[in-house]
Amino acid sequence: MRFFSQWGKFMLAGAGAMAEWEIANAKSIVSSRKKLMLIGLMIIPIIIGGIAFADDISPVLPDLLGGKKAYSPAFYSLGIFLVSIAIGLGAGLITGCIGAGGGFIIAPALMSAGIKGILAVGTDLFHIFAKAIMGSVIHRKLGNVSVPLAAVFLIGAVIGATAGGIINRVLYEINPVLSDAFITTIYSVMLGFLGIYALTDFLRSRKAGGGGDAHGGQEGAELGSMSKSLQDVKFPPMIKFDQDLIPGGRQISWVFLVLSGGLVGLAAGIMGVGGGFLTFPIFVYVLGVSSMTTVGTDIFQIVFTAGFASITQYAIYGFIFYTLAMGMLIGSLLGIQIGALVTKVVPGITIRGFYAMAVLAGFMNRIFALPGKLGEMDIIPISPGVGAILNDIGIWAFFIVIGGFSVWVIGTFLKNISSLKRKEA
Predict the structure, then answer these.
(1) φ and ψ at residue 219, rounded to 5 degrees
(2) What digits encode the pLDDT tens for the residues 83-113?
(3) Rounded (10°) angle between helices 117-135 and 176-207
(4) I need a labelling partner for 402 at 20 to 30 A (CA). Which of 30, 188, 255, 336 fits?
(5) Cα separation, 22 vs 331, whole angstroms
(6) What's the gap between Cα 48 and its chain centre?
(7) What SS3 class is residue 340?
(8) 117 with 183: CB under 8 angstroms?
């Protein structure tokens, strides 16, 4: 049980760190008039093309972008653009309000809207990359980046992202349903474990009468025996870090950095989540890197890992859809701003409860979609009708929970605008 408890804290810490990165990027973009104007220019072809040229573009678009037929029904249209904004808005509200990885719901939401899993993953990665580049947060925090640490870590991340992309593409070539089933299974396992732990954590905190931080704080084990043991392994070359924080600094063998980068890159390549939710806990709680150095290095690696994976493993093969990516970017920017303001007027324990519900809704969405996909491949004996009913149950449960949460957050924001203005003043 202790292992599962530590692993749960590990994942919550990573989700919180990823959300902090998302919030910082969103604030950087929204506070810049030039960046907002750039986004406006980037959506002009979507709006004009979606209205005027959708019928002409949609039949040839897959052939232009890699020749894959993964796009149906996500053709170039104004409608799918608006749906992607709504999905981004929901993810942004979760990130800003809960402070814990709203990006986890993007791929399940896109797949529930009828988009192939490999396209959802590739587009999500590209959306993360676009946000990282436009946020430019990296330029303000380069002082916290250990360049040797980041460089060796990225060797593994590139290898892992390449492997993840290859796995998804090979499975898609074998059978698109197999690809969807694989991605669905990965998300089911991750969201199921994280959701159960988050719910247990919420119930424990409520029983203890806890209020506390809306985001639950940065949870995780302190520098312990594992970090010390890894740093004691002298397999050259040794990579030094934290020299400015600790006399003489610390050092760790390059092998552990490459392995860690490989794991992060693999997760990014398969799930389309940028890998940031793993970097923070691995660096701090496994490798023993200070939080300050970790934050800077995490920002650094997300830009390169997401960029490399999205472009080299998905874009050039036709598995990224620009319309969806831009819609999610716009929706998430708005949602994060509203969600972050709501945390000032809502008890933290309430928000943590909503997080558990949101993650479990994502879990139900994917786990109920899985039987139908396994049935299509004749792996389990289930009729198409039953599989479709289960899939619909998962979709409705997911969108009711996420939609209800979104309505509650926006309603709370509108109801407390005057109070929020006074606090800002």
Answers:
(1) -85, 160
(2) 889 989 988 888 888 766 667 778 888 888 8
(3) 60
(4) 30
(5) 13
(6) 30
(7) helix
(8) yes
Residue 139 has pLDDT above 60, yes or no: no
Which has the closest alpha carbon to 401: 24, 18, 98? 98
pLDDT of 161 reads 93
- Per DSSP (E only), the strands in 134-274 are 238-241, 250-253
Whether the CB-CB separation of 165 and 312 falls below 8 Å is answered with: yes
pLDDT > 70 fraction of the chain, expressed in percent and rounded: 82
Interior/surface letters 256-267, b for 16+ CB within 10 angstroms, e for the rest: bbbebbbbbbbb
Other Cβ atoms within 10 Å of 59 Cβ, number: 9
C-alpha–C-alpha distance, residues 242 and 261, integer Å: 19
Instruction: Please tell me the total number of residues recorded for the chain in this structure.
Output: 425
Residue whose tokens read 């349903």: 177
Q: Is the peptide bond before 237 cis (omega within 30 degrees of 0)?
A: yes
The pTM score is 0.83
Q: Give alpha helix (H) positions in 65-146.
A: 78-98, 106-112, 117-135
Structure tokens, 329:
């970017």
Closest by CA to 304, choosing from 147, 414, 174, 411, is 147
Q: 346-385: b or e for each residue (b if 16 or more CB lie within 10 Å)?
A: bebbebbbbbbbbbbbbbbbbbbbbbbbbbbeeeeebeee
Q: How far apart are CA 25 and CA 43, in angstroms?
A: 19
